[in-house]
Amino acid sequence: MRYPKLRELAEAVKAVIKGPYTSKFPVEPHVPHPNFRGQPEFNRDKCLGCLSCEEACPSSAIAHEDVLEGVDVPKRVMIHYTDDCIFCGVCQDACIRESDDKAIVLGNKWELSYFDRSKAYETIEKELQLCEICGTVVATKDHLLWLARMVGELSFSNPTLYLSRLRELGLADNNLEPVHPDKWRSDRIKVLCAECRRKTTTYEDE
Ligand code: SF4
Ligand code: SF4
Predict the structure, then answer these.
(1) What's the 148 CA to ligand 1 centre distance in angstroms?
(2) Protein residue closest via CA to atom 4 of ligand 2
(3) What is the number of the ligand 1 atom nearest to the C-alpha of 56?
């Protein structure tokens, strides 16, 4: 007959006194370790819809769709495919917000099974700002406002940023009509995409 070693005996006595290492899930709820790296979660209020996390995600678990047709307000839908996510945390690192105020953070959600895999995603929506000349997407309104706040008074050198700020404060109207008949120069004080901004700056008669 083989006798247990001393180390095994000590472990057995410890288990009797302290209880087992394993949890009784699913009979009892499982509480993950505080350092557990689980599914990342968007903070709907803090997220700017800037797409930095989507660019950085190594497994294409983050995507977006800009919805411009058939809606009252154009919007960007950010999508996180939870079944593609590998919980690496790169999105959290890449988030452009301050390090103590990230808009996507690894949480402690761990029970992620689905009966229908097509439902394994979550979305958030952000209002878009379109170019006031050509109608292409400039950025989300939250992103422009955040940029204006970050650069402070320097935003007054950029009509797109300072108009975003003034409109938030209710001090400027949308889509101001040009007072001058020429097509580009009189459109300078508007929210514009890079191409239309270039044309208003390097104006040439067409
Ligand atoms: S944790 Fe990694 S895989 Fe998951 S969304 Fe973030 S970057 Fe992508
Ligand atoms: S990088 Fe941060 S702020 Fe930008 S879309 Fe992703 S979560 Fe939102």
Answers:
(1) 28
(2) 50
(3) 7
Which residues does ligand 1 sit against, CB inside 6 Å? Answer: 40, 57, 59, 61-62, 85-91
**Ligand 2 geometric centre to CA of 51 (Å):** 6
Round to whole Å and give the CA distance between 97 and 80: 18
Residue with tokens 């050509």: 134
Average per-residue pLDDT for the chain? 88
Strand partners, 79: 63, 123
pLDDT tens column, 94-124: 999 999 999 999 998 888 888 888 889 999 9
pTM of this structure: 0.82
On whether the CB atoms of residues 85 and 40 are closer than 8 A, the answer is: yes
The CATH number given to 35-128 is 3.30.70.3270
Domain map (residue ranges) of the chain: 35-128, 131-206
Helices (H), the chain: 6-18, 52-56, 90-94, 141-151, 159-168, 194-201
In which band, very low, low, confident or very high, does the pLDDT at 7 lie, cut at 50, 70 and 90? confident
pLDDT for position 149: 93
The one-letter amino acid at 93: D
Q: Identity (one letter) of the amino acid at 120? A: A
Which ligand 2 atom sits closest to the C-alpha of 94? Answer: 1
Which of 74, 201, 53 shows the shortest CA–CA distance to 129?
A: 74
Query: What pLDDT, on the 0 to 100 scale, is given for residue 189?
Result: 83
CB 64 within 8 A of CB 79: yes
User: Using a 6 Å cutoff on CB, does residue 165 contact ligand 2?
Assistant: no
